[in-house]
Amino acid sequence: MALPLALGLGSCTKEFEAINTNPNNATTANPAYLLTNAERANIFRLFDIPANQDGGELIIQHWAKIQYTTEDQYGFRATSYQSIWDGFYAAGLQDFNQLIAIGKQTNNPNLQAVGLVMRSYLFSVLTDLYGDIPYSQALRLGENVLTPKYDSQEAVYTGLLADLKSASSLIQTTGGGVDGDIIFGGNMVKWQKFANSLRLRLAMRIVDAKEATAKAEIAELLNGTTPLMTSNADIAQFKFLGSTPNTNPIYENRLTRDDHRISRSIVSVLRRRNDPRLPIYADKPTCGDSAAFYRGVRNGLTTSAASALGPLCSTSKVGAYFLAPTAPGVLQTYSEVLFLKAEAIARGYVTGVAATEYQNAIKASMEQYGITDAAAITTYLAQPNVVYNAANYKESIGVQKWIALFGQGVEAWSEWRRLDYPKLPVAATPAAAAAGKIPVRFRYPANEQSINTASRAEAVARQGADLITTKLWWDKL
Description:
Protein name: SusD/RagB family nutrient-binding outer membrane lipoprotein
Shape: globular
CATH class: Mainly Alpha
Organism: Hymenobacter persicinus
CATH topology: Serine Threonine Protein Phosphatase 5, Tetratricopeptide repeat
Keywords: Lipoprotein
Helix content: 40-55%
Pfam families: SusD-like_2
Largest sheet: 2 strands, antiparallel
Number of helices: 20
């Protein structure tokens, strides 16, 4: 892995802390300032153009492009692969790793836990984008590990699940919080819920690849005593203030660009269900014959085909809620946790009523956006194309989760790859690299091939060809 900074990481938490902490440098930064900056910069990066706006959101067909349509045809730029990789490895992971070290040195287990949760989150993003990644030899402070090995995705997930369990056990909910935390304002009860809820997400992610491990993790997390998110007040999100440089990256993009639109795919699904989230997810066109209704754009149009749709004002933009400078960067929602619980029940891992949790998940998603009319929600849930189907729980959960994850492009893409619902069409004009399929991963950055040649080659030999059509370890079906 060719990186601007020396890297490395231990897949076992205790070994990692012993090997990868530089006691001479850990306290050089003010932890409150470091935490604030790390949260802001990395959540901005997650929702910025390469990973989210021109990545997950297009692939998963929440958004489409009306201009500069290359990425919407799966023609991803090499610079995008590189910027995601370098940004998280050289900055985000390093920052949270340093916070873990400071927490240990200053006897602040809560700070250590916050660093562990966020480091785990970013590693999970990287492995779900690329597959096998540098992990056990990443982030070694003070060591010249310039070409670390790639760990299998299975090993990465094993390490992340252990780290999140460790983070939850470290948290002292009756002690002091952590300064500089924008996500939860230093509330360690909410951090503990997030640690466990994120662990539930990752455990479910590997259910088709390593069911015994996943089942045990899920049963432990859903035992009724482990703290998980219990309402929308527990949503893990970064609240952008709306003033430069603390503004949502989508707003920043719209200051100079206007090339994204709502996808026809999600407009069709929402319209067929009379979904009250449609006017939140999309705006009506402001000109032309289509101004009276929502007009989504088919994914993968050529630039000329997109231009033929008419003036820019004749198609639906992404909803104003998501374009606001203060729009939050959402990491995990209460709705998602309920969908995970519904699936665990459907699979027989825990007891309960899957249909009830499914309905509660949809309700939580709606309430997240201020839709609180109980009668309207009840009517929505009673529709034949919304009612929970126990015979095909993956379809019921997959479609509604895809709707609820609107705006969270990377996570929505991961869950679509795992559940295989909804059934989405391939882009209208897919790039040759996609082989007529929807992409299931990003390619490794070019610098890895030229500098970290041997490590990358070993990963490719194990995982499969470095193509956007090569499935990840957990994507079995």
